[in-house]
Amino acid sequence: ICSGNISQDILILQMHSAHWHINGKYEEKSNLMFWAKEIKIKLGILLQKPDSVGDLVIPYNEKPEKPAKTQKPSLDEALQWRDSLDKLLQNNHGLASFKSFLKSEFSEENLEFWIACEDYKKIKSPAKMAEKAKQIYEEFIQTEAPKEVNIDHFTKDITMKNLVEPSLSSFDMAQKRIHALMEKDSLPRFVRSEFYQELIK
């Protein structure tokens, strides 16, 4: 009968094998084959039931870290956002609130594009930069992109030319256009919304 431990069973199997070879007793062979069959069956069960493998893994007791909550801004900070989109975007709580507001209007693509551009400018590897540039273009810039942003044809053409050889500044013109659009259009609507009013109560 198997011991219940695969490592131990394999060791016993090796002991039986050694005993059979040393003594040359053929009656041990049937016992050896029995052990081999039992271990094969046990391995088959473990492969069919991945949950059982958990018994063989050393448990990891440390709990995963929860994402840090953004700290609510002071009244003075929140009031500054009325006149400065940059200060709003630089504040994690403000950015999250602004994004929630835009999602409620189904117009979050401009902010998502702006964030994607910021992430893009942090990339060091040319290969990863080219990959990210292609992703941003296909998602936000090209005609009928799933999240196409509202930029003029001139800006789109310049951006496309910049992507022939991607650099950190490839999306600068398009990002500035979208920033200006959010500052002129989205920010005033956000300031009038309940999302912002909750912050300045």
UniProtKB/TrEMBL annotation:
Recorded superkingdom: Eukaryota
GO terms for biological process, alphabetical: negative regulation of signal transduction
PROSITE patterns: RGS
Key word Ribonucleoprotein present: no
Subcellular locations according to the entry: Cytoplasm; Membrane
Record keywords, A-Z: Cytoplasm, Membrane, Signal transduction inhibitor
Molecular functions (GO terms): GTPase activity
UniProt xrefs under InterPro entries: RGS, RGS_RGS5, RGS_sf, RGS_subdom1/3, RGS_subdomain_2
One GO CC term, this protein: cytosol
Residues of the RGS domain: 84-200
Cross-referenced Pfam families: RGS (PF00615)
Keyword Cytoplasm: yes
Summary of the function given for this chain in its UniProt record: Inhibits signal transduction by increasing the GTPase activity of G protein alpha subunits thereby driving them into their inactive GDP-bound form. Binds to G(i)-alpha and G(o)-alpha, but not to G(s)-alpha.
Protein name, as recorded: Regulator of G-protein signaling 5
Lineage, broadest ranks: Eukaryota, Metazoa, Chordata, Craniata, Vertebrata
Name of encoding gene: RGS5
